[in-house]
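In the previous chapter we treated chains in isolation. Here, by contrast, the input contains four separate entities that must be folded as one system, with a combined length of 674 residues.
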Amino acid sequence: MARVTIKEIARRAGVSKGAVSYALNNQPGVSEATRARVLKVAAELEWVPNRAARQLSAARSETFGLVLARTAKTLGEEPFSMGFVGGVESVLARTSYALALQVVADLPAELATYRQWAAERRVDGVIVVDLRVEDPRIPLLRKVGLPAVLVGDPSLADGMACVWTDGTSAMNAAVEHVASLGHRAVARVAGTPEHGHVWIRDQAFTAASLRLGLDVQVVHTDFSAEEGATATRALMTANPRPTAIIYDNDLMAVAGLAVVQELGLRSPHDVTLVAWDDSTLCRHTHPTLTAMSHNIVGYGAEVMCRLLDLLDGARPQAHLYSTPLLIVRDSSGPPPP
Amino acid sequence: MARVTIKEIARRAGVSKGAVSYALNNQPGVSEATRARVLKVAAELEWVPNRAARQLSAARSETFGLVLARTAKTLGEEPFSMGFVGGVESVLARTSYALALQVVADLPAELATYRQWAAERRVDGVIVVDLRVEDPRIPLLRKVGLPAVLVGDPSLADGMACVWTDGTSAMNAAVEHVASLGHRAVARVAGTPEHGHVWIRDQAFTAASLRLGLDVQVVHTDFSAEEGATATRALMTANPRPTAIIYDNDLMAVAGLAVVQELGLRSPHDVTLVAWDDSTLCRHTHPTLTAMSHNIVGYGAEVMCRLLDLLDGARPQAHLYSTPLLIVRDSSGPPPP
DNA sequence: CGTCGTTACTTAACCGGTTCGGCAATCCAG
DNA sequence: CTGGATTGCCGAACCGGTTAAGTAACGACG
């Protein structure tokens, strides 16, 4: 079964290669009758365009890129990346675009990947996650001219297209929740402060606690279950200890809950726990975990749509996706007397 | 900054396009002096080969494909896929190959993707996960001539290259573990029996329990935390109830543990729980979970290496990657009296 | 010294599309 | 009825590589 090319279609339809190309791409230059005939022949022969050939002449790769700077191990553990990728794919499936996913070790490797992709013309655009404060990826992408949608706050995006969730409002909601339960000593187990969303939540946490007159502390971690557990152990064995802890993801919250139990304490009786991101994990612990919930899959889908818009000529804009919603579950309660 | 092509290199080095190609690809046909000169010019101009052009003439895409038939949501929750992808990428990073990842809804969509990829010559080979009993993907891949490495038992691979872990031995170890603790009523919360590895574990579970004279039952689920919880609740509220439960992944085991606690029972006092896959989650529950541990990242890496071998002309073989190792943790104990 | 075989290139075709310039045929206005 | 614009299609160049075929120069050998 030899490959079917437009040359073969041209032969069978009795027209030239050029005419076939116009017909197949819905471009003017052929009559409706001819177009129909060509489409019919193409369908009969089950013609599929050759990506490489199209890319070579049209200078479009029909591929988008996504780089994840994480170790392979982390990738398997945190629920965000995969859900996000799933959302991106759900939009892509309806188009002829493909996704090039690259997992690299660190930020320099990520920058190198963008350089490589730009030079090879491998992708038509990229999605940038884990936006940082003073992110070096922004000037690089500008320089090499790769269209991009950033996932993160407009204040960090320097005018590039971005999609964000309102971390400040969400953090306010979380802090107000525990404050309204009567908590005064509140801790935050945060991720790495280089990440923009962590930084923003740090600011919001401090501001909210100041406003509400709370006694707070922040511990920074690398987002892993290990460090979430370690941080929780340190907090809960100190004197005095916090009566509420707000985590930056749900993996750390789950690990934190285990530590609380291991210390012979109970949630919410001894401590109120609030998770972030709300994967199903939070609904399948005992007690179930209060969480700031957002739709990660939908987030990925939204970002992909915005990138498609950008390629369609839309000018770069900041899009608010949604504000994480507080879901109160069994790990919320009043502080111990 | 115009794109640099081999034509430009040829002009500057004072040779023809063809000679440049030979030089850059380490092929005979040019003198060492010329080769060195060409390489120097190419380096100076920061030449990067154009993938599309190379693919068009060489009929290789330098891309491998991986299709995941899962909902976007599931993807974010189960620790296997992402860890596996991470392992695959860790090998790919050392080559010039890229990974095309496609997330689709179901098996028919997955088959369609392979057809499409084969027709477009989009990938040079694919990795096939979630091998099934009588898997329809095997004949399709044979027909369209896509080189593939299957992830699953040789008994299901029909002679195609595959990498597997010894589920039978692992299940034996798990059952012998709980039997040696004195358990006689053992349940298995399994995934969907269409999946080859589930089927193999089902067989092994039945055989082992027969051999050891245990009183067993099997509940099939869709691998989700929800159904893991439901199954556990059904098992633990029945009379008589099992004193040990072996799960097919760790998500269900974690959810099962929560149900046990919610029912006012304790592990291991009232029931011994054994998880499968052993992501870090198992070390961060209270009690920590006994699990059949295997290195998912390494598994992905191994599979990728075998696919590279296959493309290098190795003949299709079955490779045993490793046998999951029993890690005994706090959720293991003797049955209640 | 003629011939044969290597070596080191050059030339040109080719991969499968897109796209531009040009040329009849047709249409319409003057 | 004529001139200019429009329509519909053809032929060819082009994208940036790879590779088969051809050739000139040179050394070895009978």
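The two ends of chain B are 79 Å apart (CA to CA). Residues 63-337 of chain B form a domain with the Rossmann fold fold (CATH 3.40.50.2300). Compare these points with the single-chain example from earlier in the chapter.
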